[in-house]
From TrEMBL:
Keyword Ligase belongs to the record: no
Full protein name: CENPV protein
Source organism per UniProt: Irena cyanogastra (Philippine fairy-bluebird)
Pfam families for the chain: GFA
Keyword Repeat: no
Family named by the database record: Belongs to the Gfa family.
Length: 180
């Protein structure tokens, strides 16, 4: 309705002015609540140039969404665990990752410094994401666990995880990949 007002939590009433009719029509056309429409708008603004990828484990018990480029920069690490798991991953800030379901179906493995949190599905054993040692404030996402249709290209960079400290110290950007 014309003159409609949105009420964000704790902010009081916001007058949408001339946009109120357009806002209401958008909500109705897409069958969205005010919160859902606001989330869509904020995501589109905050994640400009990024796409929403969805993915999960093999059995479907764990599902997530992540905002990242359609052109992925994937690390191929040769440390002991990444070699055994064939763990190739790209890194995103925690703010761009959302676990949609399956928190109760995840278990975690750590070793050595215990900084990396290797999470995997208790049912099928697939690690679709984890918290990397290089970026404890972000997530390493397995591109092969993403649903089809949102990845354009994958560029793979080998990283010498056998000499982890040296590799991370010498890499020009890896530590900043989890920064928003």
């Amino acid at each position: 309705p014309a003159g409609a007002k949105a009420e964000p939590p704790g902010s009081g009433v916001i007058d949408l002015g001339a946009q109120s009719g357009r806002w209401a029509a958008f909500q109705e056309r897409h069958r969205l609540s005010c919160e859902e429409a606001a989330r869509l708008l904020l995501d589109a603004y905050e994640y400009r140039g990024l796409v929403k990828h969805t993915g999960g484990c093999h059995c479907g018990a764990v599902r997530f969404e992540v905002w990242a480029s359609a052109d992925l920069h994937v690390f191929n690490c040769n440390c002991s665990i990444c070699t055994k798991k064939q763990n190739r991953h790209f890194i995103v800030p925690a703010s761009r990752f959302k676990l949609l379901k399956g928190a109760d179906n995840l278990t975690t493995y750590t070793f050595n410094t215990h900084r990396a949190q290797h999470t995997f599905c208790k049912t099928c054993g697939v690690q679709s994401f984890y918290t990397p040692r290089s970026n404890p404030d972000g997530y390493g996402i397995a591109p092969h666990c993403l649903d089809d249709g949102t990845v354009q290209t994958i560029i793979t960079e080998d990283i010498n995880g056998k000499e982890w400290e040296k590799a991370v110290r010498e890499h020009k950007t890896i530590r900043d990949m989890s920064k928003p």
